[in-house]
Write a structure and sequence with these properties.
Elements (H helix, E strand, L loop, with lengths): L3 H13 L8 H4 L6 H4 L2 H8 L5 H6 L6 H6 L10 H37 L3 H4 L6 H26 L2 H18 L6 H15 L2 H12 L2 H12 L1 H23 L5 H23 L12 H9 L15 H9 L1 H29 L5 H7 L1 H21 L2 H21 L5 H11 L4 H13 L3 H24 L10 H37 L27
């Protein structure tokens, strides 16, 4: 009988194989599409004179799920006044944001629990030597990168809320098992599968945000749930400090580093079940909305030109994603920006001890960095949406972080306070990463294309986080000067990349405006719900 390891690749292929109710390409070719004959009046004329691209009509055959809601209201005019829109937004915020914020905070806390454990006896008890800890840190991202593209396909194909909840519960369970780890090999296995289970969270939350919020709302909402990384850093540091001090003073039946894995893992499992109950798959099955409000909740995101979901894999959208310069600009940013992130997030406790503080003090003194991250993310998210310029405003976090790293590099070793303050400033660095994550929700249309770009963005994130810990070599302690120089160079490259993305999006908007201004241009009815990509839809406007 074949082993489970032999069958696993086939099971994965079965799960992620693109499923579609449309005919295969070879069958489609036997029935040529002739839009001029099939469409009457003005649309046929528009196709003849080139104002409507035939490809739009061909791709419109497999439209968005939003059309299901409107089909049940034939002939009705769906109107959404400002008061109703505000009421719906408050209701959506109330039901979605608290759970998403808590889960995303746990997402950060659970993968950085290793950093707390590293100064609480983990290294000694599991006999980690040489570069073992660096590889244990990176192994999470090997699991993440392995499963990132398949999980994005599943996020599109399966019910979004339920699939996300299943992953949250599984990652909490996986984290609990780390308390049973006895050696490096066991730690590698658990960290790898922790990466697999957490791979769905960030892209899933990006999809939920694009599904429920308008373009003008997405930047601030993404910043809010992402900012709970900072709250988690504060909470995690205080919990780890309390456990370390309590067990030192009063003793414990099990080692303190095991307690922190069990506490955070069990908390994640509980929140996962709450997520399963509260978060719907889309507006179509939202229990907290009436039937009428479900339709209005879809209508309010019409302006996004993206719809609320399409379950079918579309090869042309995959090809477009791989050929789009924006895709690779996003990927480059995630790769380069997360080299610093991978180093700092896994070594911040050890970095703080290198400033002259004890292991216990490092757990406590790391917490204000979380507050800096929260303030930077919320402020940049708010200002970005208010002034309609997420990209350039977000770079302020990188400039502040670069100043902080220069303080760490340039100040003498005996200047503990100055170097610690520099570390706090580096915690503003995620602002552009979050801005670009929100722009994947806003600026990438077509659900196959969106999930593909999100997967590549997070694959870049994983690769950067794998590289990052390797720059903090034991021989460079306590100053880690080479790693700190790498961090500064990476942040400068990131700023240049953001400037390119800004220029490219602005250029594309000018081209779209010229197309729409043409007297021959015709907009199709319900074009917003046809699951068109951003590049093929002339109505699409890129957010800056």
């Amino acid at each position: 009988m074949p082993s489970s390891s032999t069958l696993y690749p086939f099971a994965v292929l079965f799960l992620i194989a693109p499923l579609s109710h449309t005919m295969p390409d070879n069958e489609k070719s036997t029935v040529p599409f002739d839009a001029e004959k099939e469409l009457p009046g003005p649309l046929a004329d528009a196709i003849r004179n080139g104002s409507v691209d035939k490809s739009i009509l061909q791709h419109a055959g497999d439209a968005d799920e939003a059309l299901k809601a409107f089909m049940s209201h034939p002939g009705e005019v769906i109107e959404l006044d400002e008061a109703t829109n505000k009421r719906l937004l408050r209701r959506i915020d109330l039901h979605l944001m608290p759970v998403m914020c808590i889960v995303y905070g746990l997402n950060y806390l659970d993968k950085t629990t290793l950093s707390y454990a590293s100064v609480m006896g983990l290294k000694k008890d599991t006999n980690l030597q040489g570069l073992d800890y660096q590889w244990l840190s990176s192994m999470f991202y090997f699991g993440y990168i392995f499963w990132e593209y398949p999980t994005n396909r599943l996020l599109q194909r399966l019910p979004l809320g339920k699939y996300s909840a299943a992953n949250i519960i599984l990652w909490g369970t996986t984290l609990c098992t780390f308390a049973a780890v006895k050696d490096f090999g066991g730690g590698v296995a658990v960290r790898f599968f922790l990466g697999v289970t957490e791979a769905a969270v960030t892209p899933g939350f990006a999809l939920l945000t694009s599904q429920w919020y308008t373009k003008k709302e997405q930047g601030s909402r993404t910043s809010i749930w992402f900012s709970f990384n900072g709250f988690a850093q504060i909470f995690g540091g205080l919990v780890a400090y309390g456990i370390a001090k309590g067990t030192r003073l009063h003793g414990s039946a099990i080692e303190p580093w095991k307690i922190i894995f069990l506490v955070t893992g069990c908390l994640t499992i509980c929140v996962g079940f709450i997520f399963l109950y509260v978060i719907p798959d889309s507006q179509l099955n939202a229990r907290f909305l009436s039937k009428e409000d479900r339709v209005l909740a879809i209508e309010r995101v019409r302006c996004n030109q993206q719809g609320i979901g399409n379950k079918h894999f579309k090869m042309y959208q995959l090809k477009e994603a791989l050929l789009d310069p924006l895709t690779w600009a996003f990927f480059f940013y995630a790769l380069v920006a997360d080299i610093p992130n991978g180093g700092i997030s896994n070594f911040f406790s050890q970095l703080i001890t290198s400033f002259g503080y004890t292991a216990e003090e490092s757990l406590l003194y790391g917490t204000p960095g979380g507050a800096i991250e929260v303030i930077a993310l919320l402020l940049c998210g708010y200002l970005g949406d208010k002034f309609g310029n997420r990209l350039l405003i977000s770079t302020s976090g990188l400039w502040i972080s670069t100043l902080g790293m220069l303080l760490i590099v340039c100040l003498p070793l005996d200047n503990n306070i100055g170097r610690l303050f520099g570390y706090y400033l580096t915690q503003a660095s995620p602002t552009p990463f979050v801005a670009l994550l929100s722009l994947i929700s806003t600026n990438v249309a077509g659900w196959t294309k969106k999930t593909t770009v999100a997967a590549l963005y997070l694959i870049g994130y994983c690769a950067g986080n794998i590289i990052g810990p390797q720059t903090f070599r034991p021989k460079d302690a306590p100053r880690y000067i080479p790693a700190e120089i790498v961090i500064i160079v990476c942040w400068m490259l990131c700023i240049a990349d953001i400037v390119f993305i800004y220029w490219y999006c602005k250029r594309q908007n000018r081209k779209r405006a010229e197309i729409r201004a043409s007297p021959a241009y015709v907009k199709l009815e319900n074009q917003e719900w046809l699951d068109l990509t951003d590049r093929e839809n002339p109505e699409f406007v890129y957010t800056l």
